[in-house]
Specification:
The chain is an alpha/beta fold. It is built from 14 helices and 10 strands. The protein has 3 domains: 77 residues, Glycogen Phosphorylase B (Rossmann fold), CATH 3.40.50.2000; 165 residues, 3-Layer(aba) Sandwich (Rossmann fold), CATH 3.40.50.2000; 25 residues, no CATH class. Helix 1 crosses helix 3, helix 10 packs across helix 11 and helix 13 packs across helix 14.
């Protein structure tokens, strides 16, 4: 059994014990960074560490966090998230359009992104910022936009469908995300939106936070700045706007990195390997029969059919 998030793993742990079912727990961020500060969950983690067959983290950062809580290293596995590179593909976007995708919550620091963009706008008055997502900080963001006179340059369309996000990636020329550690300890795991942007051929400006540096190679596929560094983020964004050729080169490098490491196929294969799964031979033969009937007829004898 594969349980998504530690909470789900805890709820099924004893059932798996009674049924002698191997349990793998896939953590994602909040269930490590915030739960570690809760005594009740620290106790629950100890039981999970004892009985679960393995723990899967989307980044080395989160795997190390689990280890610091007492998870045996031999039970720890790193399997980054993956995206579909057939949906997110590079196209020529609008030169001065920036995109952010994520909930408007403290760890996404949307106000810092807006503040940095306000500085960028002084040098590049034609720049535009779309911030897709909703959350408890929406009113604060709108107030800051009004205060800084950005209403014509910053768009907050709220929650959008997957198809709308794909289209927004196509319109953009750069992706920005200023992730930070929230006051309650909440951190990112391995942000999928950053991988979607890289697959779309967009250079990324983000922070050296949690698993982000494991996806974005600073100076190669994007630029990483320190958490809460408004000036640094503004300078990174401006450097891309001032040098479109550099931005395009880093976007292309990001696309190559996703194709090499972070597709859905990579994730599927890693998970199956971690859990010791393979296609049953009957299903494998059935798939071969439909995918390549000529090969199947040459390889299989009468009893296999």
């Amino acid at each position: 059994m594969l349980a998504e998030f530690a909470g789900s793993g805890w709820r099924v742990c004893r059932i798996c014990q009674k049924g002698k079912i191997k349990l793998y727990v896939h953590v994602h961020g909040y269930d490590v960074s915030v739960y570690r500060g809760k005594p009740e969950w620290r106790r629950r983690y100890q039981e999970l560490f004892k009985h679960a067959a393995g723990f899967i983290a989307p980044s080395r950062f989160l795997a190390d966090e689990l280890a610091s809580l007492g998870c045996p290293r031999e039970k720890l596995h790193v399997s980054p998230n993956g995206v579909d590179p057939r949906q997110f593909t590079p196209v020529a976007g609008e030169p001065l359009r920036l995109l952010a995708v994520g909930r408007l919550v403290e760890k996404k620091a949307p106000r810092i992104t807006i503040a940095a963009f306000a500085d960028v706008l002084k040098k590049f008055p034609g720049a535009r910022l779309d911030m897709i997502g909703d959350g408890p900080l929406r009113e604060d963001c709108l107030a800051l936009i009004e205060e800084r006179g950005l209403s014509r340059a910053v768009n907050l369309p709220g929650t959008q469908s997957h198809e709308q996000v794909v289209e927004a990636m196509r319109r953009a020329s750069m992706f920005v995300q200023h992730s930070v550690t929230a006051a309650n300890g909440d951190t990112e795991g391995f942000p999928v939106s950053i991988l979607e942007a890289m697959a779309s051929g967009l250079p990324v400006v983000a922070t050296r936070h949690s698993g982000i540096p494991e996806a974005v190679i600073d100076g190669t596929t994007g630029i990483l700045v320190a958490e809460n560094d408004v000036s640094g983020m503004a300078q990174a964004i401006a450097s891309f706007l001032a040098d479109p050729a550099k931005a395009d080169a880093m976007g292309a490098a990001g696309r190559r990195r996703v194709l090499a490491h972070f597709t859905e196929t990579h994730t599927r294969d890693r998970l199956r390997a971690i859990m010791g799964l393979s296609l049953p031979w009957r299903l494998r033969n059935t798939l071969y029969r439909y995918i390549n009937p000529d090969w199947y007829s040459r390889r299989s004898g009468p009893s296999d059919r």
